[in-house]
Amino acid sequence: MSKNSIIFFCLFIAVSYSVFSQPVEIFRDNFNDNSNFWPNDKYTKIVNGNHIASCDTSYIFRMSFKEININEKKDFDIAAKIRQLSGDETQGYGIVWGSSSWKNSLIFDLSSEGWYRIYGYKNSKLFYIKKAVWRKDIIKPKYSNNVFSIKKRGNNLIFYINGTKVFMSGTYNFSGYYTGIITGKNTKVAADYFLVRAEKRKINLLSNQISKYSKENMGLNINSPYSEIAPVIAPDGKTLYVARANHPLNIKPINKYDIWYSTLQSNGKWSKLKHALKPLNNSGDNVVISVTPDNNTLFLETLYNADGSYKNDQGISVSYRTANGWTIPKEVKIKNYYNKDIYESFAFSPNRKVLVMSVERNDSYGDKDMYVSFLQVNGTYSEPKNMGTVLNSYLGEGTPYIAPDNKTLYFYSNTEPGYGDADIFVSKRLDNTWTKWSTPKNLGKKINSNQWDVYYTVAAKGDYAYLVSSKTSFGNEDIFRIKLRDIEKPDPVVMVYGKVLDSKTKKPISAKVIYENSETGKAEGIARSNPKDGSYKVVLPYGVKYNIRAVKTGYFAVNETMNLKKVSNYKEVRKNLMMAPLIKEEAIVLKNVLFYTTKAVLLHSSYEELNRLVKLMKKNSNMKIELIGHTESRAGYEKQLMKLSQLRAQSVKKYMIMKGINASRIQTKALGGTKPIADNATEAGRKLNRRVEFRIISQ
């Protein structure tokens, strides 16, 4: 290569770098209005093309900042033109950047008397990048503009005042994306403009295709001129709970949030919101966190006193539906729960075994992070554990919602590149630790706006999402809904519903409903049947074979099995749960006690039901039972089938003896195919006739 070629090649590289590597303008505010949503309070105003920021003698300094998403790994520029209007000329004013709050921030300021400095705070501790240096030759006095400029190039930060380079240092890690203006004690300043150049970051979208659906305001039956937040849709999609503030019907003080609810009418429209009665509402902030599929259990923000009055907001509570209304909410215990922020939000997994919360704790990365807590054997929840940096970032994440599939998480984040103040993201759980997640995806501009979009919730069917937005609202915030495309839906589930009934009288029963993994015996969740009509509902994710049964003292549950290992679409399945009353001489079928074909050898799947019978007899030490073996009828095989039924009854007895029941408490009887309960002409009927029953002889 010739010398001229080498020179040209090097020149080309230099020009290419200068053209393609320079930061681009991603933010500029000339303060003609407050369309960029800077703080607006007694210390900060946008007036006549200036950002007016002040600090009185109550504070050492005050910061007026907003989130500007700067990629700290790439080159960037931050610039502002600021002048002091009044106050103490010995105090500083300038730029703050890379901040999550004053406690973790980077600062470049100067004083009207002529010094500048560069410093920061790390976990509230002051550190200096450059201690105060006098530069009266370049710093302009009070009432005159000073132009601040910070340039990151490679691994260096270069600081300028009025176009003059004053210092260069290495880079410092951001603790957040807040960037803005700092004002010293007893000082008022005016910023003429604020400018940021940086790498333009792409929004990490769930789908690059724009949805044909748009979010719709749910109208005046749900929304009002007041504030509506925290929508929680019951999994069956028929009841919507909302928190509303400032409504005249709220319990005083009315500026606190009260629980309101609406029901879906037969014409597909939502009823006008109704104010929930005591004890759900009191003088504090009352918000529904979660509702069980049967709509019989509510989890609530706020702690309640024994009389239902407000205690404090440092925790969550649970209330159960009774025939006469809701119980006084009782505290759900969380080990070492505390929150350093004034706001919090919570979400339960569908089976209530996992609690996700947005709070600020000592190990938070930002002002609020998402944490996970697990249900313990004693009914309490474990100490909250940070869910990691894939979900949590410098600023704030909140309003988590765990979809009915038990692995899709929706939440808002302030910090990822987005459309507005808070955007809604989605992530998928990757394992059972609840700390490993897929990279969060932004749900797109049809859901997120340039304002506040939070509280995303989906019914089990997955057809609509419900959320809060301040964009085009009747009041401060309104409830919206949007129809979902398949790519936006969580994984499909099965809604199982029905009634818990007495198998003898067919009358409804109020009972616990337990659903468990039939292969492991592990309980997957608990529901409650309605105390008035015995109705229940549970949501079951695909991929598991389930046993479902009701539990109540004085009854033996008849187990129902549902094989959902093969994934399919959303379904609703009706399944009544029968409960056999423990009445002397009344035969009860052990429905899930099964044997290998033509043998008296128990299948492993039989053990769970037999263990429940063993537990019942241990609890009732005087109880004696008779085990009765049955088979299908088959002409010419009567003797063999009679013997098989006897051997099977004896096999069950042997298992129960092995589990600790005295042999004298168990009798056996063989009836072969003499007492069919179904038609022997069909395989389905013959299957029902092959059974073992027990009846109580004495108790």
Explain what you see.
The chain is mostly beta strands and 699 residues long. It folds into four domains: 20-198, Jelly Rolls, CATH 2.60.120; 216-488, Tachylectin-2, Chain A, CATH 2.115.10; 492-581, Immunoglobulin-like, CATH 2.60.40.2190; 583-699, 60s Ribosomal Protein L30, Chain: A (2-Layer Sandwich), CATH 3.30.1330.60. The protein is 8% helix and 43% strand. The protein has four helices and 48 strands. A hairpin with a 2-residue loop joins strand 6 and strand 7. The longest helix has 21 residues, at 638-658. It is elongated, with a radius of gyration of 33 Å. Mean pLDDT is 91; it is low at 1-20.
* Helix content bin: under 10%
Class of the largest domain in CATH? Mainly Beta
- Could you list the spans in which at least 5 consecutive residues all have pLDDT below 50? 1-20
Give me the Rg, rounded: 33 Å
Shape: elongated
Q: Kindly, what is the distance between the CA atoms of the first and last residues, rounded to a whole number of angstroms? A: 104 Å
Look up the CATH topology of the largest domain.
Tachylectin-2, Chain A
Number of helices: 4
Mean pLDDT: 91
Strand content: 35-45%
How does the helix and strand content classify structurally?
mainly beta
Quaternary class: single chain
Q: What CATH architecture label of the largest domain applies?
A: 5 Propeller
Q: How many domains make up the 3D coordinates?
A: 4
